[in-house]
Each structure stands twice: as C-alpha cells, then as structure tokens.
Amino acid sequence: MRFATLARVFSGALSLALFGAGAGAQSSVGVFDAHTDVGRVGRSGSASYDPKRQAYVVAGSGQNMWNDRDDFHFVWRRLTGNFILSTRARFTGAGRGADEHRKIGWTIRPSLETSIAHVTAALHGNGLMSLQFRRTTGGMTEEQKSRDSLPDADAVIQLERRDGVYVMSVAQFGDTLVTQELTGVSLPDTVYVGLFVCSHNDAVVERAEFTNVRITTPAKRDLVAYRDYLGSSLEILDVATGNATIVHQYRGSFQAPNWTRDGKALIYAQEGRLYRYDIASRTTRPINTGFATRNNNDHVLSFDGRKMGISHHTVEDSGASVIYIVPAIGGTPKRVTAKGVGPSYLHGWSPDGRWLVYTGIRGPELDVYKISVAGGKEIRLTSAPGLDDGPEFTPDGEHVYFNSSRSGRMQIWRMRPDGSDQRQVTSDGFNNWFPHFAPDGKNIAFLSFPPDVPADDHPFYKHVLLRLMSVYGGPARVIAYVYGGQGTINVPSWSPDGKRLAFVSNSTMP
Q1: Phi, psi at residue 180, to the nearest 5°?
Q2: At a CB cut-off of 8 Å and minimum separation 6, what does 340 contact?
Q3: For the chain, how are helix, strand and coil distributed in percent, rounded to 5?
Q4: pTM for the full model?
Q5: For the chain, which terminal residue's Cβ has fewer other Cβ atoms within 10 angstroms, N or C?
Q6: Are 65 and 202 in contact (CB under 8 A)?
Q7: Spatial CA neighbour of 442 closest among 498, 510, 381, 376
Q8: Dihedral angle at the C-alpha atoms of 279, 284, 288, 291, nearest 10 degrees?
C-alpha cells in the first residue's frame, strides 16, 4: 500500500566460488554447484534435476550420519553469511522402508570431510525430525529432536543461519511450522550447504525427491525499509499439488502480480511502472500508463479484463496516491478519486464493472471506501477503530472481504457492498492480510504474518505463509512457505481457471 522511490541497494551477495570439492565431485545440478559422495559409501549416489517442475531427485548410500563420521550423497553449493534453506522433501523409490533411520534433508558443513563439524536438519525414515550437529571435527554427533513427527508425509524442512544461530523449522506440508534454535556451534562464514541422502544401509541406495527448493539470502538487520530492497522472484503455485516454480527474477524490487483474464500473462509493479510478463515466452515489457509513472503496488484488473485500475502518486496532490483507470493494454489514465481527497490505495473491482473498493487514509483513520468507476463522491464502508485494508469483491458481488485490526490482530472480515453486516471470518494467532477469492468463489487465499509483526503493519522480508480457506468453513491450510511479505500477494492473483496463484518471494541476488 505504500510507495517509495526504489533504490537498488543490495545487502550482500552469494558466494559461488568452487574450491575444495574433493575427489568425485560431479557437475552442477539445478541451483547447486556440484554433487558428490561424502565419506565411505558402498554404492555411488546420483542427482538429477527436472527444470519443468524445478524438482530434484537425489540417490545415496552410506552407513550412517552419526557418531564421529558421516557417509552420504551431497548436492551442494557454497554460501557466505546468513541464509535460509527451504524444501519440501519425501522418500521415494525401491529403497523406501529399508531402514527406519535412513535420512534426508539439509546439511551445513565447512568442507566435504566425513568427520567435520556440521549442522543438519534430518528427516528419518520413521518420521523423526531432528536437528543434528557436531561441534568439532572428530567429535560426537548430538541432536535436538523436533516435537513434530512427519511419518509418510511430504515434509517441509527449513534450516536457517541467523548471525551464528541455527534455526530448524519443520511441518507436514499444509501445517504451520514448528521451530527450534541451536546456539554454541561455530562454523566458518563460508560453508557448503545442500541436500543430502543417507540410506543407513551401505548396501542400499535410497532416493528422495526435493521440490520447492529455495536458497534465500535474507535482509540484513540494518536494511532500511522502502529505501533498501532485495531481489524479487515471480513464482507460480499449483494450488492442488503445492508445487511452486520460479518463472522470472530481478535483482531489484517488483511486487504484486495480477493474472490477466486470458491466463496468458501477469502484471506487476516495478519501480513505479507496470510491467506485463508473458508466460509462454517468459518475456517482460512495460505497459504504457502515460504520465502515471509513480505507481505503487495496488493495481486491479476489471472482471472482463479490459481495464486496469492503478494507484499513482500524483504531483498535483503533493505525492498522494490517487486512483486512475487505464485500458489494460495501456493508454492515458483517467482520474477516479477526487482532487485533494487522499491518499487512496485500490484493491478491488466489482464483478459488474461499476464500482471500485479501496483503502483511504482520511485524517488518522484508514478505512474501506467505494466509488463509482466514473468518479464522483466516495462512500465510506468501515469506521471501526483500527486499520481496515485490502477490500475485494466476491465473484458473485454479494460481499466485500477485507482485513481489519479492530479485534487486536489483523484478521479477515466480510461485509455487504453497502458496508452492512460486518463479520469476522478468521480468528487465529497470525496477522492475516489481503483475502483473494478463487474465480469459483469457493476458496480464499490470504497472506499470514507471524504474531510478532505488529497487527497494523505488512513489512517486507519476513517469513510469511500463503494460506487457503474454504468459504464453507474449516481451518485454513498452508499452501506456500515464503520469504516475502509486502508485495507478495497484495492484489488479486488467481489464474482464471482457479488452479494457480502467482506471488513474489525475495532474496538478495548476486
């Protein structure tokens, strides 16, 4: 909802130098520099990458990863500083069930030596999830067992280094993460990180599939919001399978993808301008919005796909955000909200094409308003104390959903289009923002910030969740585990067929 002139200031860079790979190191695979067997293995391991699904299959042998040595197959790259490693992992293949202590997951190591100090997030064959570590070379392995067991499940495994503290977060896919921290293990600044497979039976080769693999360099502590920015990744999520693929990346900031009504392209905001990303050709081009070149990330397509509403910071209103309408293919903007009344941040368009709903700041209050697409007098829909934001019409036009902090946390609410019958929809420990309806009106996707984020804020560069909830009731389930926040999913971003969602994740990029 906010606008700032973007500066390409980077908080660091990934170190991709290849050295010390050791004997037997194989060529690069996907985002990793190489893969190799570590220690003594009876049968050689392997790794392959499916670029369409962005999935890895890793096979490995090895007696164990325990005591004073580790034997396994390792798919690795070298990183420096802080990072977040994330994947969805599962055992596959004929070796499944061979040993309850076979292991897969992430490991962080100073070298490819078998007895080196390390920190490892390991999923065992029996569902045990443990944070394993060796404090010194040749020392004995210790562990912290997670209270969550993940038997026969697609496991979400995250391992983060945060200024010398190691954080493991795990969940069965669809659940919220359970986190534990490790201190007192000292590893060098530059380390090998990657995926591993250990069969726990040297005569057996175990296999595992790793999807949604992300290696993220997070924001530094001294990053100044709305001045300093990380790089951006445009991702497309298959809602049924939970598999997300990165389709476009940029070293600066872009935000808030809309899906065009023909399903062929995505529209996003980048440094004050709107861009169209063509899915088939994977190319981008700017959209002509005339004088409106200071647009924030609040832009919405009409239900028929012919027009686009934008929120432009106009000079004649002292830089306040003002709502305009332009043809979806580009053209001269037509002002909608009145001069001197603002700022206003657009979020929704009625299915009949007659109304826009938006967040307006009028004095100290942030409330939901609606206005005719032809302009005229705005109509205030909410007036409760607290921040009301992110309004969006349901596909049948019967309700407007929005997020409100009036109950103490930011939660999802709904009301009639005239502002009547306001009711709370979610009630949980997260701060929930930006409800977006699937085209069939049966499900709502929204963004969840952790409880330590202030209820009235939606900052950049946090661990956030995309969650899905049925309009008929029942708990919300996680459909994506994301490093992002502001700009991730601020605007309607369902595909027209209701099968996919587009969103933005973030990382420092070299």
Answers
A1: -145, 150
A2: 317
A3: 0, 50, 50
A4: 0.94
A5: C
A6: no
A7: 498
A8: 130
